Structures are given as structure tokens and as C-alpha cells.
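Sanity check

After download, print the first record. It should look like this:
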Amino acid sequence: MLHAGQANIHTFRVVPSLPKALEPLHDIAHNLWWTWRPEAVELFRRLDRDLWRQCGHNPVRMLSLVDQEKIERAASDPTYVHSVNQTVAALEAHTVKPGWFQRNHKQIAEDTKTPFRVAYFCAEFGMTECFQIYSGGLGILAGDHLKSASELGLPLVGVGLLYRNGYFHQYVSSDGWQQETYPELDPATQPVRRMFDEKTGEQLRVQVELDGRAVSAGIWKVEVGRVPLYLLDTNMPENDVKDREITRNLYGGDVETRIQQEIILGVGGVRALRAVGEDVTVFHMNEGHSAFLALERIREFRESSGATFDEARQAASSQHVFTTHTPVPAGIDRFSPDLVKKYLGHTLEGVGLDMDGLLSLGRENVFDSNEFFSMAVLALRTSSYHNGVSKLHGVVSRHMWQRVWPQTPVSDVPIGHVTNGVHTRTWISPELRELFDRYLGQAWQEDPADHSVWTDVQDIPDEELWSIHSKKREDLVTWARQKVRRQLRDRGANNTQVRAVDGLLDPNALTIGFARRFATYKRATLLLRDRERLHALLTNEERPVQFLIAGKSHPADGPGKELIRDIIRFAEDAGKRDRIHFIEDYDMHIGRRLTQGCDIWLNTPRRGMEASGTSGMKAAMNGVLNVSILDGWWDEAYGPELGFAIGRGEAYHDSEQADSIESRALFDLLERQILPEFFGRDESGIPRAWVERMKRCIASLTPNFNTNRMVGDYATQYYLEAHRVGTRLVKDHLSEAKGLSAQLGRWREHWDGICVEHVETSAGATHPIRTSVDITATVALGALTPDEVSVQVFHGRQTGVGDLVDSETVTLRPAKDLGNGRHEFTGVFVPSSAGRCGYSVRVIPCDDRLATPFIPGLITWESDRTPEHAGVTA
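Expected C-alpha cells:
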């Protein structure tokens, strides 16, 4: 071996020799549009089915290995050439065809003066199993986001990192312990291409300063339909060896590697967009990993317009959307103050802050100098739009980050939600695709979010749906056996051990899937709490049950690895590996197999700790019924006719008690409802009630929980508003941003002079429900004027401890100038529920340039409250 650095190694790329008739295969292979187009996949499978599997479903690599004789044979086959031409024509049509965005937002789509364009930043992207720069749900969601943006015609680009070794591959040792390997990804055999500088002919690069040295990052491009994804890679020859390793592994290395990666992603990502000529008007931070982009954009605005930090932040944040996926503080990237000083100290002059000011951007409590720097808090403080990823997660996030907006009621903390989805055409099985095409037409593929399209699912004969589903379960069992045989042979197992796999699993058993990251809060071993009942389930020959389990634990997560070992040991000790089996190296391919072939999709997190979860959505689209804790997406999706709920959404203070109760509830569900319904067959051998539930599941959940709906929601709720406000604030050298910043300065200077002096209402000790209450508030504004503030009555039902819940807000109008900065405001509010009602008056900023009126530190409540007014949850 000749190591890089020992000699000057000249490189060139060897490519397959394709006849002219097959040259379009290159373009098809390099555009991940093929991942959701079966006819494109079939082109490569037809060339060599075994090689397609051996290459991990990687068409680029396959084209570099396929036998030239087979290529020549395909080129002389008129039907194959015709299929190639049809497929490349479909790809070209997809890239130019007007989509949902062009039809519904024509004026913005045709605006050439300020073209609307979104940059979507994420630390990982999962688009296909052959390109493993993803670890799990976050990355697969990001990949599905790009796919749906392409289908919708949304002007969007992705920005991420090109990891040379990707995420780890998993195998399990003989004692059941997870082991990791890190095979290198060769970009030459991946669906990714270098971006070149037209002047020099060299790969396009950006430079980022890290600890006093300049680090180069090369730019690569992946085509996802009509959406480009730009990836940064520090494995450049001019970098030191340690810097070339920065983008080696996803979520690998220590905390110092993590901050380096996130600076490359955020700062380098913005510079990469400039280098490739992308003019972006909205920046979406998908999780906090990319939040350093805000510092780079503030620096850019200061450099281009001479703005102060506050002015530049106002302009930048108006164009920033931040999505949090983490329901617990422990899941947030946090860096010590010393590490931030080491890697960001050089940015102070450009950003316009001193070090304490910079550190305060990442602190919940800006006055706590010992608090670690949080990437989520940085994202919250430098973006105007924030959201969680399910309705329940929005609630959890508002509670979690309330300290960032002190004195603001939880319900008013400016964090909304856009519930996640999955890309329909990627995850629905080929067999169901054909079935849906016959009974639903093409509309389900063109607009999967259209509820009316899915009503025709009821017209599908039970026999056809059940036959397809049963065949998918049989295929799953066959595939699992083949996979286990390959694993055994790779480890040197003898023929007897390999032949024993023939008895693995039962194609007619109720098949329960559990596949996700092995974190302790997901409670993969909940059923092991009652091994006697579990053993009874696994040994029941009349109503057989089997479990297929998959998932990776982070390499540093010992407790997560223990869960995997506990499951494997139980199966071995109970002699039930034929009924409970762990599948190694969970990836997108395994995910598709399981979510298309199981009968039940099991999800057992502690409530409130699963932000959304998307694997259950993939299962639901395939008629696989969810059995889940009411958490994440299932909390809003569940209906008794659609699937099964473990518990009723109870909250427990004692985790041991929760595990015990919910384990019993799960066994009760399986024994008393699920098994009788699944095995309740009619004379035709069909479980009619089960199939009816499958149909309702598909028809109800598919249009609600797909990424076409999700990306459309992001566009209408956040992207277009950020584009509108941001465009206004950044024009004319930030004139509007500077004006808003001055207004913020004015509020901060004079806010202490605000006081709600007196409140009167027409309500007595009792008041009729749904009858107006007149209210008058006397408010001292000091140097501020009524048009600079919003005076509101905050009212709702009052709990026994005095808190206001189910609250509503009514804005009062200025009625009289009382002199000396005092004003009278009046209005009415209507109690909407019987019982004890409470209210209080508050003052908040008012300016139509604000994305939210809730600004940390700028809220004043009626301070001299009588007992019936007390208890506003702040």
C-alpha cells in the first residue's frame, strides 16, 4: 500500500463503457429520483439481479462492476433500450413539471426580482441504503423532505456533510454484544459528484477557520429529483491529517470533533451556497447541529451593510426556521465555554460581540457564566420561527424552552409544530403500489395528501389486500432466513448451523416488528418484564406470535447495547430464536422490509420522550397496525378503529411503576384483543375485522402523515412568511432591520416604565357562560405610545392551584389618553367554559415586522392582582 503523503498520487476516475443507447443510465444512477421510481430500479435489476443485491442496491457501483457482455446484450435488446429512454424522459419531465408550489403560489414562483429559495441544513441525510450518511430517523426524515420538495416543485436545496465512513455498520458477537465496523464510502461509486471551479478546473472548496488554522472543505453535489443537495468534505489533500478526519464519521469522535463538524456544516455550509451561486432567502436548521450558520450570516450582514450585531441578527433571524427534534435537554449538543472560546473566539470581531455576549446566545440563563453553550438555544435565539415535530412535541418543547422567554405563559412560547411525515412512494411496497394504481388511479402518487383520493381504499376487495399482505409477510420470513444464512457463513458457521435457519420464523404467525434506535427510553425490553407471559405467547401453536427486532445503539451507549444483548440472550435461553429474532445492521432496506411485511408495529417509549417517530407511519401506509404508547405522532393519530394504544396517555412520576403498568397493558392488548382479532378467520381464511382495520388505517393515516403534506405545511406556515418578512428586512442595506432593531432598543430602554395600574370588568362574583365581559385597563406606558405595544387580556379556566389553562387572548383597543404617559384600554372577552374563570392583563411589543411579539424580557403583567386574577402560568 502506498499511503497518501508518501508520494504525489495522481488520480483519475475509471467509468464503465456504456454503449450510446445506454448512456442515460449514468444520469439515472446519479439522480436519487430512482429511489422512488420502481421502473428506474428495475433497469438496474434487469442488468444483473445478483449484482444489484451484492452492490447494496447502488446503481453507480453496479455500473462500474457489471459484466461488459451483459451491457452489450442489454444495448441490443430493443425492449430494454425503450425502457431506458422512457425512464430518462420521465426523469427529465419530473425536473421541469410545475408542481404544487407553482400551482398554488404562482406569483411567488414567478418572482424574478427576489426569487424564493430555501436552504435545508441537516447533519445527516438518508435517501437510500447504499449511501449511508445517515444514522436513523432524523436523516431519513431529511431525505424524505428533499424528495417531497422535488415532487411539490418547492425551490429548495439541501446542505450537509459527506462522511467518508458514514455511520457504523453493526454486527453482534457470539455473546450478544453489538460490534461496530466503519467501511469507507468511495465517492466514485456513490451517487454524488464533485463541484468544479470553472476557472481552475479544481474541485470547489470553501475555507473555515478552526482553532487558528484554515481548513478546506470540498463541495459535492447529489441530485434528488430537481433538488440539489450540497455536501462538504474535509478530506482534502491540503488539510492536515487530523483535519481530513473531521468528516470521517457521522456522530463519531469526541466532543471536539462534534464542534468542528458543526462549524463546517453551519459556517462552511453558508459559504458553500455562496460558492456554487445559490441565492437563498430562507435558511432551515433541521435540529441544532447547523446553528452556527446564524453567526456566519450575521457576520455577512455586518460586513456588507455596516450593521451592528443587533441589526444583523434581526435581519438574519427573520430568514431562519429552526426545527427541534429533541424532547429532552440531554439530547442537545452542548459545549463547554472553553471549547466555544477555542473555536469561535476569532469570530467575535466579525459578529460584533464580546465573548460573554457570544456565550449568552447559547445559554438559557444568560447570566449563568457556568452554563454550557447549547446549540438548540443558539438556534432559538437566532431564528424567528421555531417548531417541534408533532402536536405533543410542540407542547413538550414549549415547556422545555420556556426559560428562554421568561414570564411568557407556556401556551404563548413561540414554538409551534409541524408533524413529521414519510415519503409515500419510497415506503409503500411495490405490490401495494400496483394495487393502489388499480383502485385509486395515479392520483395517490401525484397528491398523497389529498384525503379524497384515499376513500377508495374501502373498495379494495378484502381478499386482494389480505393476499398481498400475507405474501409480504412470507417474503419477509424468506428474506430474514437468507440474511441470517449469509451472516452465519460470513462468520464461518458449519453447514448444520446454516441449515438450522430453515426453521427460523413462521410465515403464518402474527409478526410483530420493533425497529428503531436502541436508546433506553424506547424500552425495547418492556415485554421481558413478564417472561412467563412472553414465553406463553411464543409457544402458543394455535395462535403463533413472533417478533422481528432491529436497531442500533450508539457506540458509546452501553445501556443501549445491554438492551440488545438482553433480547438476544432471552431468545437463546428460552430456545425461541425461531420466534424472536434480532436482525443485524438496521438500515433503510431492513426498515422497508419490516414495515411492509409485519402485521404489528410496536412502539414503547416513555410518554413525552418520543418527539415524533416515523417508522410507524411507514408501517401504517402498508396496512401494518400500530401498537404504541400515546406519544409523538401516535398521540394525535390514534383512533380505536386505526390501531391500538398502550394505556391512555397517563403520566407517571415513577418509571418503575410506569414500566410495570404499561407492560401488563401491552400483554392484555395482545392476549385479549389483537390475537383474537388477527386469528378470527372466516370460512375463506380471512380476518375480516383485521382487514377492515387495515383499510381504515391506510385511508386515514396515509394522507395525514406523508412528507408532501409536511413540506407543504412548512412552506405555508414558515417558509413563505420567512421569505416575506426576511425580504422586507434585508432590502436597502437592511434599512427595515435597522429600524426594527432601533425599535427593540427603544422597548428595552423604556420597558421598565410600563405598569398595568388598574383593571375593571363588568363581571361580578358569577357571570353567565358565553356572555361578554367588558374590561377596562389603565396602563402607564411611560415614554412609549399605544401603537408600540399590545395590551391584552389573558383569560381561561382556573385550576385548583390558581393556574390558568385552556387560555385565550383578546387584544384591547386604546380608548383614552389620560396624560403623563397613562392610557385607558377597553375591550370584551367571552368565558367559553363553566366553572372558575381567571384573567389578567398584560403588555407586549407590537410591530408588524416581528415574527412573534414574544421577545425575551419584554412582557409586563398586571402586578397588583386580586386573588381571582392570580395564577397566570408564566
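If your output differs, re-run the checksum step. Summary of this record's structure: The chain has four domains: 20-96, 116-411, 451-705, 754-869.
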